[in-house]
Q: What sequence folds into this?
């Protein structure tokens, strides 16, 4: 996968969980669909067929990456839209069939795309159970079992990997628990962060619905996908011309879909190598930060099968995360405190709250997320900047917190 040199500029981009630079090969694949092949895929002439053919190829490429059939992929306008169709569409369909089905189960650390969909359902008469997580962000499977009602539960929605910490849930096991309680419940997983970072097979996981997004995998923005297992039924939440099996009406974003397909094809060929390199770089970053900056904690589970290879999440005691972000940006390092949407709204992270972080711990949080374009030199440089910025900020904010300081730097658990 090659990324254009000028997207690197002199800055260091460590916010790849928010969005990624588009791969060169993806751009090349998209260009003809912005210029030569502009037909509406619904048109009954050769221009339309050209577009349809391109969409069908992309459907194959996306489905191959996630172990699904091409017919099980619905293209959407984003990961958010796929989550909305999955959660709301499945809930409304179930309640239409059986009015007793008015209960949703989700985790306390979902992305807002799922959280807000559940809130919307709540406003429309559904009950929502939020599963607690432990300090590492892992869902309590016992609580999942307890929460399922054979009579009432319509949908379970638990993310495959978390966008702030990178924790990977044991979805296959969670699906098994749900199926033991009831085989009428639809299981949705938000795989937006997991796509391309860990091998995914929808059929092996046993899920009914899965949301994915293109711009997290070096594809274009404004295109996502919903895996809808053969035989699973959801209501449409957008009305119109009936595109994408009536589930996502609206003229297809042909060049975006082509780009998404190409990004998936590239990952199918190269994701093992890419992720190995990214994991090494991430581990180098973590080691350096822990060795060079005092009073820092690396958050999330130990064990590489429980965390994404590209995300590193830290708490810097005595530092305000937003000040840290601004100072890092001034020095040319782009990072995040967590989800991009949450930062804009300046709200406290519900994910870290659910994981039991105190307010000063939430406030001192920083997410660094890597991509294939990052280099060892960039990591070294970024850590040097981070160290200087943290030192400076701490000068103005003495370490006055009553936290258990022993958990900082002492019990760091690498992968
Ligand atoms: N779900 C998760 C876990 C995400 O991280 C994101 C984006 O950050 C989304 C859903 C939303 O995806 P999109 O940006 O394509 O709407």
A:
């Amino acid at each position: 996968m090659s990324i254009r040199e000028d997207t690197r500029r002199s800055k260091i981009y460590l916010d790849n969980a928010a969005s990624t630079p588009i791969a060169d090969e993806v751009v090349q694949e998209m260009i003809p669909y912005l210029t030569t092949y502009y037909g509406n895929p619904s048109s009954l002439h050769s221009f339309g067929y050209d577009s349809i053919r391109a969409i069908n190829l992309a459907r194959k490429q996306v489905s191959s990456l996630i172990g699904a059939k091409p017919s099980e992929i619905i293209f959407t306008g984003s990961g958010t839209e796929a989550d909305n169709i999955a959660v709301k569409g499945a809930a409304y369909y179930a309640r239409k069939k059986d009015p007793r089905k008015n209960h949703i189960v989700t985790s306390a650390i979902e992305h807002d795309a799922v959280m807000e969909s559940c809130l919307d359902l709540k406003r429309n008469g559904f009950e929502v159970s939020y599963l607690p997580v432990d300090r590492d962000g892992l869902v309590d499977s016992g609580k999942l079992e307890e929460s399922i009602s054979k009579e009432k539960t319509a949908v379970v929605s638990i993310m495959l990997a978390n966008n702030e910490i990178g924790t990977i849930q044991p979805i296959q096991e969670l699906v098994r628990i749900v199926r033991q309680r009831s085989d009428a419940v639809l299981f949705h997983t938000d795989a937006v962060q997991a796509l391309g970072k860990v091998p995914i097979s929808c059929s092996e996981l046993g899920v009914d619905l899965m949301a994915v997004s293109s711009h997290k995998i070096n594809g274009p923005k404004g295109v996502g996908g919903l895996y809808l297992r053969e035989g699973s039924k959801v209501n449409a939440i957008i009305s119109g011309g009936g595109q994408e099996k009536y589930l996502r009406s609206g003229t297809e974003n042909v060049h975006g879909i082509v780009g998404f397909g190409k990004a998936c094809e590239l990952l199918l060929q190269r994701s093992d190598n890419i992720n190995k390199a990214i994991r090494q770089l991430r581990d180098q970053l973590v080691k350096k930060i822990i060795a060079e900056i005092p009073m820092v904690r690396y958050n999330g589970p130990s064990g590489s099968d429980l965390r994404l290879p590209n995300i590193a999440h830290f708490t810097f005691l005595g530092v305000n995360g937003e000040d840290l972000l601004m100072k890092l940006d001034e020095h040319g390092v782009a990072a995040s405190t967590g989800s991009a949407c949450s930062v804009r709204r300046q709200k406290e992270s519900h994910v870290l709250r659910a994981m039991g972080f105190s307010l000063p711990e939430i406030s001192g949080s920083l997410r660094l997320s890597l991509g294939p374009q990052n280099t060892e030199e960039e990591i070294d440089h970024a850590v040097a900047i981070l160290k200087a910025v943290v030192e400076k900020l701490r000068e103005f904010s003495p370490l006055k917190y009553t936290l258990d300081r022993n958990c900082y730097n002492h019990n760091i658990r690498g992968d």
Residues 410-415 have pLDDT under 50 and may be disordered. Residues 78-80, 83, 111, 113, 159, 163, 190, 192-193, 213, 224, 339-340 surround pyridoxal-5'-phosphate (CB under 6 Å). Residues 76 and 87 are 14 Å apart (CA to CA). The radius of gyration is 22 Å.
